[in-house]
Amino acid sequence: MLAYFTIICALLSALYVAVVLFLYSGFRRLSSRHLVSPHNLKFSIVIAARNEERAIGRCLNSVLNQTIGASQYQVILVNDRSTDATASVAGELAARHPNLSVVSVRETPAGMSPKKHAVALGIASAANEIIVFTDADCAVPPTWLETIDRYFDEHTGLVQGITVYEDVAGMNRLFFGLQAVDFLSHGVVAAAAIGADLPINSNANNFAFRKAAFDQAHGYGKLGSVVSGDDDLLLQRIWRSKKWRIRYMADAAGKVTTLPTTTVRGVFEQRKRWGSKTVHYSARQICLLVPVFLFYCATVAALVAGFFRPAGFGLCGAMLVVKFLGEMSLMMPGTKLFGEQRLRRFIPFASLIQLPMVVCAVVLGVFGRFAWKGQRFARTSR
Questions:
Q1: Which domain holds residue 101?
Q2: pLDDT tens-place string over residues 195-241
Q3: How far is Cα of residue 117 from the mean position of the Cα atoms in its chain?
Q4: How much is the pTM?
Q5: Are residues 226 and 299 in the same domain?
Q6: Quick one: 188 and 299 in the same domain?
Q7: Are 201 and 177 part of one and the same domain?
Q8: Counting Cβ atoms within 10 Å, is residue 204 exposed (0-12), middle (13-18) or buried (19+)?
Q9: Within a domain: residue 272?
Q10: Is residue 317 domain-resident?
Q11: Would you say 42 and 10 are in contact if contact means Cβ atoms under 8 Å apart?
């Protein structure tokens, strides 16, 4: 039995290496060269916020402090049924900034994701062609919109940008480093997959697209009931239309920072939410991800087998070496692109923790429930 299992593990390891090489080739294609000259585009920034009174002021102030003129962009804050002071904080800023408006959600339609419903209302209110997403717990640089502008040409339908975790005073450094590495790994994979012209995941913290591309993809379509995925599911729908180019904004001048999760439970709930939407990915994306997931499962299984047959520990160790080398081939250039070299010392430990977390998060996210914004959800709204 162990011999057959060893063969399966060897095949999965080979497939894992193939996926890593594919992503590495995509990462090598990323470049900030050959950018188009600024088009002086006009933007509509959509921010959905629920109970974000402590963060929304900082977020909006950063968005309103852009190097381009206020007449070139509008900011739409969608207050999604907040029960705190989110609306009043945003309203005070709107009174001083004519290009900021507040849209309030009073009720989410049955069978519709709350986040998707909120951003769809923001998009419907947008007056400009380029829609830009960020989240209420983010801060953007003054050169954010100016940089996004340079990545759009007439063939570009969507631009994904860099997001990293912001240091929080008083947070345990190991806890911060481990979740920051995991978060960074998602960003690195997103960048590499876009470079390989097979976009997989995305991040609404720093996400821009043409309204025409959104309309041609029929918005979220039947995926509107999927609780998560207001970013990557839309990315894949626009990509599948084959009408638009997807670009990655590999430029620190457009880098967004976001706040890390403050508790271990919060991190796991967040990862379950991310895992819940993967069953709604398209066939090509799933075919790329399934070998990685099975490789992770087999590595955990080899560890468990080791308690019954010591050879299992050796097999698990060999697979961990394959995993670590594969990750480092992406994370070393990834930390450089994202300006996160400080996180390299956390990668080995994070690599070990990621194995059980990914397996559990995907399984529980797909078949169980997760917490988000004080509510409990399954992967689709009912």
A1: 38-262
A2: 999 999 999 999 999 999 999 999 998 889 998 989 999 999 999 99
A3: 18
A4: 0.94
A5: no
A6: no
A7: yes
A8: buried
A9: no
A10: yes
A11: no
